Amino acid sequence: MQIRFLLRKATEYVFRRKLNFLLTTLVIATALYMLCNVFFMSAKSTYYIYETKQVFSDTDFVNLNILMAEQDSAGYYDNVEWFIHKLDEEYGENAGKYMFLPVNYIQDGMEKRENTLYIDDDLFNLCRVSFHEEINHADDKNMLYGYVCKDKLGDIPVGTILENANLGTKTMVVGYFEKGEKWSSNLLFHSQEAVVCLDDYIVSVMDEAYFEASSMFYTNVYNSVYVRLTQGEHAETLKKEIKKLANECGIKCYVNTMDDLVAEQKKENADLWRAIGIMLCFAVFVAMIGVGAAFLSDVLCWQKELAIMHVYGVSEGSLFWMIVFENLLKAILGVSIAFSLFAHSLNQEDKMIYLQRVVPKLFIGVVLFIICASYIAFRTIWHRRVMTIIGEARL
Amino acid sequence: MIQLENISKVYEGDTYKIQALQDITLTIEKGEFVSIMGRSGSGKTTLLNIIGFLDTATSGFFKFGEKDVSHISSKKLWKFRRENIGFVFQNFALIDHNTVLENVVLPLQAMNVSGKEALKKANILLERMGIADMKHKYPIQISGGQKQRVAIARALVANPPIILADEPTGALDVGTAEEIMQIFREINEQGKTVVIVTHDDKIAAKTKRLIRLETAKIVEDKKL
């Protein structure tokens, strides 16, 4: 293949026909923006199933989400405390709880936020997390920093013991997490904080005394408990036991196994797909027709040149790849516009879903589509005889 | 050099079947100056396309030099065409947005000849054609006769042994047509084989051999 020649000609063609190039690029960008929307909706609907399974090292557990009282009721929170005690008694180290506690404060006139995750030691190994190798030897994981917070370790070196005078608790700084480590805050997949990146978190492994001392745990909307299954235990049986215990304690809570939550999410997804399926098909159809028509129009514009090049010894394959290369240039620009505009419209968490789950698939799809559409456009003109094409050219 | 035996070409579709060539047997030796004449639809352009590797015969034997090219697929013929054939068209077939010089270097670019060498060869040919001062102009800025000279320069630039011309004077006035035929004669005198398709007796008379086609068959083949 005459690669140097075809690259030169395709690039030359782009520069000679800037308007065509820009218009087709805009068609691609618009079509892709539309597709980004649809594919993002689809990706988001399955994201938490995917992501939660990535986060957990073990999915044999039952998750409890304790509901807040409908009205302010001190009695209700007493019941919650009692319920938690009963869980501890019943399930011992298999029952683990955790709590998110964001704290806003002012430093040097700037408002800052410190995100802390308090967790049971029992629960710590439930999630897949890895640590920086320098502190991997630490056995007693008391306090860890997220990747972004690791600079604080300069001020607070590994081994420092921090004391909370109010609670009378002590914690030791043992290191920091690798970049991008995550924690599942609860298993309600549709929650905005179902999966949290720990990069800017401090994670404090607390003993039972801390939770007992902290009334916040019982009143925090994010509180959650995981109860692991013991070997041979059936998740449904455990679920019934916990529901019964909750009823006895007068507690309102969601109790779900991993399978329940996946099934619930899949049902929601099926409903969503029924609603957006037609829209998706239509969007894909319009996008393909639009881009295909633009490609065909461009190829028709330079069919005479293609025929002349063929007469003078450029192979059919080279001509085809010349068209593909030109269309790929348009696609790269179109993709850059559409992908970045769409990413700009998303919040941080959605952007992560978009980058992980939509961009790679859509990019591969675009490249394959460009090759197929280029082939169809090329074949549309190339089934005719070269001399006919040249003969039709104006004198 | 070119040997055709019982060459036939049929264009066939769902609703039509056209016999473009029927049992054409013909030999063109190196250095010949041949004209192919015939009315519209007689098959002369089809014959030129087959000789120029732009089309393949439906049946028959085609030998090029010492090589049998009858069964080579049309997709692989581009290499033979690139190395052996230079084309000249009635409508010049110049690329409008390329300059005269860029048009002439095109076959060399397709052969990945270095830019400097390609420009050198193209400049020599433009000089020979008497249009060196036009090299930075676009086809739209020059006359028909000048365009055909550019087309001839492009056909010659890769130094192919055979030049095929399809009605090269069809779009030119009588005086310019004379000049173009003079160029073809000079090219032939330098040892190249020149085959011209024309429907004009006066143009054909300037060649050294006349092949006349009628309804897809050769009806006359004579030295002039």
Written description of the protein model:
The complex is a heterodimer of chains A (395) and B (224). Chain A has 2 domains: 3-52 and 268-392, no CATH class; 68-251, no CATH class. Chain A has a 9-stranded mixed β-sheet. Chain A has 395 residues and is of the alpha+beta class. The two termini of chain A are 31 Å apart. Chain A has helices at residues 3-16, 18-55, 74-91, 208-213, 216-219, 235-249, 258-301, 303-311, 316-344, 348-382, 386-392, and strands at residues 61-66, 95-107, 110-120, 143-145, 161-164, 169-176, 182-184, 195-197, 201-206, 224-228, 253-257. Chain B has a single domain (2-223), classed as 3-Layer(aba) Sandwich (Rossmann fold), CATH 3.40.50.300. The two termini of chain B are 20 Å apart. The mean pLDDT of chain B is 90. The longest helix of chain B has 16 residues, at 174-189. Chain B is an alpha/beta fold and 224 residues long. Chain A binds chain B through residues 2, 4-5, 8-9, 16, 304-305, 307-317, 385-387, 390-391, 393-395, and chain B through 45, 49, 52, 54-55, 75, 78-79, 81-83, 87, 89-95, 97, 106-107, 109-112, 154, 158, 166, 171.
Mean pLDDT of chain B: 90
Put simply, the count of helices of chain B is 7
| Strand elements of chain B, count | 10
What spatial order of strands do you see in the largest sheet of chain A? 5-6-4-9-3-2-10-1-11
Number of helices, counting only DSSP H or I runs of 4 residues or more of chain A: 11
CATH topology name of chain B:
Rossmann fold
Query: Percent of residues of chain B in beta strands?
Result: 25-35%
Mean pLDDT of chain A: 79
Parts with pLDDT < 50 across at least 5 consecutive residues of chain B: none
Helix-residue proportion of chain A: 55-70%
Uncertain segments of chain A: none
Number of domains of chain B: 1
